[in-house]
């Protein structure tokens, strides 16, 4: 059980496919000291963010995470090996439909009483006064609109598409954020005012680690910290790949695979290297596990969770809220 006197904090979770398993260990460790007022995430980070936004404690997070059958995440368009994924890639722009993980998220959130973003509304008079009513939620997930060429922060940006943020299903936003290009099929968002359709893919294409999501825009000092948890190392020398065994793909296909993987995993690295960003964020060592290796066994999943736990403990051992305020926010 989590202690009742936990401190408030916001949390931002990086995407990283199956590497996101490590986020569970780190988040659970932080939950023993902090409660999360708001949570943001991209791709795999969006899945965990959605559950944390419901207010689950450490035990609840571990219980929910244990229910996901990872080997079912790369599902099939039809029960025809090899042929169905190839047809899906050519016709629907994705090897896998992503139905299993979307319905799993929908079912588990509904069991927790959360279906739409209206169930996660948060009205706190102490928040940044610049926050509009459509930005006052416990959860934000990122997606990329490749039709309009823009980053989406959902539910904040639903209004730009003529949609009521309160009425939008949380699971739909999470599924859009999960749409690793070419691995999962993209999602479609339709503007009811014009009928125009936008194609949405993984939020990591434009911002895989949006640590600044909850930063205040007024002159006031933050009331509590925003922590960021990443699942990659800036100096990693592993081959970047989306497709399983992508490093073996020939010529143009191999280049495309590496390009997509690099876009999803490395977009924010220069920003994250800034000293005051690094003060409030930490990365978990997930080397040896590929982005889309969802067939990892139980021992590998346990290793990733333990790696996340260790990274969080190391971070907390050197964390000082007072030092951060003084050195990075100019507060006395």
TrEMBL record:
Domain of life: Bacteria
Signal peptide: none
Coiled coil: none
Motif GXSXG positions after renumbering to this chain: 41-45
Cited InterPro entries: Acyl_Trfase/lysoPLipase (IPR016035), Lipid_Hydrolase (IPR052580), PNPLA_dom (IPR002641)
Residue ranges annotated as motif DGA/G: 202-204
GO molecular function, one term: hydrolase activity
Domain PNPLA: 11-215
Gene Ontology biological process terms in this record: lipid catabolic process
Annotated keywords: Hydrolase, Lipid degradation, Lipid metabolism
Keyword Hydrolase annotated: yes
Classification via CDD domains: Pat_ExoU_VipD_like
Active site: 43, 202
Ranges spanned by the short sequence motif GXGXXG, renumbered to the chain: 15-20
PANTHER family: ANNEXIN, PNPLA DOMAIN-CONTAINING PROTEIN
Identification of the protein by name: Patatin
Organism whose genome encodes this protein: Geodermatophilus obscurus (strain ATCC 25078 / DSM 43160 / JCM 3152 / CCUG 61914 / KCC A-0152 / KCTC 9177 / NBRC 13315 / NRRL B-3577 / G-20)
Lineage: Bacteria, Bacillati, Actinomycetota, Actinomycetes, Geodermatophilales
């Amino acid at each position: 059980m989590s202690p009742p006197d936990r401190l408030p904090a916001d949390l931002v979770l990086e995407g990283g496919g199956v590497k996101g398993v490590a986020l569970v260990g780190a988040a659970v460790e932080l939950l023993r000291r902090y409660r999360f007022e708001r949570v943001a995430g991209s791709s795999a980070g969006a899945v965990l963010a959605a559950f944390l936004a419901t207010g689950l404690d450490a035990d609840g997070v571990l219980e929910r995470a244990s229910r996901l059958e990872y080997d079912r995440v790369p599902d099939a368009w039809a029960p025809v090996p090899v042929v169905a994924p190839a047809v899906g890639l050519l016709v629907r722009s994705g090897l896998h439909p992503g139905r299993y993980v979307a319905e799993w998220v929908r079912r588990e959130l509904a069991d927790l009483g959360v279906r739409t973003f209206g169930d996660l509304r948060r009205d706190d008079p102490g928040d940044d006064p610049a926050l509009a009513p459509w930005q006052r939620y416990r959860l934000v997930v990122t997606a990329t609109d490749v039709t309009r060429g823009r980053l989406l922060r959902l539910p904040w940006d639903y209004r730009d598409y003529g949609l009521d943020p309160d009425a939008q299903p949380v699971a739909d936003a999470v599924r859009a954020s999960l749409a690793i290009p070419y691995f999962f099929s993209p999602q479609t968002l339709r503007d009811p005012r014009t009928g125009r359709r936008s194609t949405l893919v993984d939020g990591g294409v434009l911002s895989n680690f949006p640590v600044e999501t909850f930063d205040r825009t007024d002159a006031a000092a933050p009331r509590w910290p925003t922590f960021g948890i990443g699942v990659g190392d800036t100096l990693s020398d592993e081959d970047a790949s989306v497709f399983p065994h992508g490093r073996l793909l020939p010529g143009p296909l191999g280049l495309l695979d590496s390009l997509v993987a690099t876009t999803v995993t490395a977009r924010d690295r220069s920003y994250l290297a800034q000293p005051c960003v690094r003060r409030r964020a930490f990365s978990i060592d997930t080397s040896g596990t590929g982005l889309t290796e969802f067939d990892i066994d139980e021992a590998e999943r346990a290793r990733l969770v333990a790696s996340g736990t260790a990274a969080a403990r190391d971070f907390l051992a050197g964390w000082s809220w007072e030092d951060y305020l003084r050195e990075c926010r100019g507060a006395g």
